[in-house]
Design goal:
The protein is mainly β. It has one domain. The chain has no helices and 21 strands. The strands form six sheets. A five-stranded mixed β-sheet has the order 5-11-10-7-6, with no helix packed on it. Strand 12 and strand 13 form a beta hairpin. InterPro entries: Gal_Oxase/kelch_b-propeller (IPR011043), Kelch-typ_b-propeller (IPR015915), RAG2 (IPR004321). This is Recombination activation protein 2. Keywords: Chromatin regulator, Metal-binding, Zinc, Zinc-finger.
Length: 239
């Protein structure tokens, strides 16, 4: 369960890179590594990738999974945004019986400068509870956080947060707004179908109950609208 996203050198750049952060390793440990993957060449339908590890300094996000990473663009600059996820409980609390026990990460927003490898944590009053397996949508200088699961409370609150990042030449400014009209869902699949439209499919509304409703998420004039769409005729094995 790593967090992944695409990254362009600029809003108008066609060169795309891919950012991979965290997740579980094959031996069931958690990773705090961040990797940048890019296409080196395309030859006879064969694509060659280069993957490099990026070292971070500052407020480095702890190892985690089930979180999100996105890229925002503001004033000609770009920055990665890491939010949410789960991590193992502290080493002092990890006994043999509790070795794989996890807890919500603190609800900090991390800004990551991919050029210089600097990371800074922000604590926002609107974000009080840790979240995992939420949906995140990045649009220019704004990220929308939808749904998610709070392990501490064992609930899937109908969250909808708008996190806006301003990147002047000085220190970044990060603010969060709580919006109405959220959805109670975790582990859903989000697919972009046009420049201003996304489709949300699947996920869970309870631990043992899948969410069979599909939604269209659309944007117009920086306003977000979430509406139900016609549900496919699910096959029995999906149900």
């Amino acid at each position: 369960y790593p967090a992944t996203c695409t990254f362009r050198d600029g809003l108008d750049s066609e060169k795309q890179q891919y950012i991979i952060h965290g997740g579980k390793t094959p031996n069931n440990e958690l990773s705090d590594k961040i990797y940048v993957m890019s296409v080196v060449s395309k030859n006879n339908k064969k694509v060659t990738f280069r993957c490099t590890e990026k070292d971070l300094v500052g407020d480095v996000p702890e190892a985690r999974y089930g979180h999100s990473i996105d890229v925002v663009y503001s004033r000609g600059r770009s920055m990665g945004v890491v939010f949410g996820g789960r991590s193992y409980i502290s080493s002092a609390q990890r006994t043999t019986e509790k070795w794989n026990s996890v807890a919500d990460c603190l609800p900090h927003v991390f800004l990551v400068d991919f050029e210089f490898g600097c990371s800074t944590a922000y604590s926002l009053p609107e974000l009080q509870d840790g979240l995992s397996f939420h949906v995140s949508i990045s649009r220019n200088d704004t990220i929308y956080i939808l749904g998610g699961h709070s392990l501490a409370n064992n609930i899937r609150p109908a969250n909808l947060y708008r996190i806006r990042v301003d990147l002047p030449l000085g220190s970044p400014a990060v603010n969060c707004t709580v919006l109405p009209g959220g959805i109670s869902v975790s582990s859903a699949i989000l697919t972009q179908t046009s420049s201003d439209e996304f489709v949300l499919v699947g996920g869970y509304q309870l631990d043992n109950q899948k969410r069979m409703v599909c939604n269209v998420i659309s944007f117009e004039d920086n306003k977000i609208e979430i509406r139900e769409m016609e549900t496919p005729d699910w096959t029995p094995d999906i149900k």
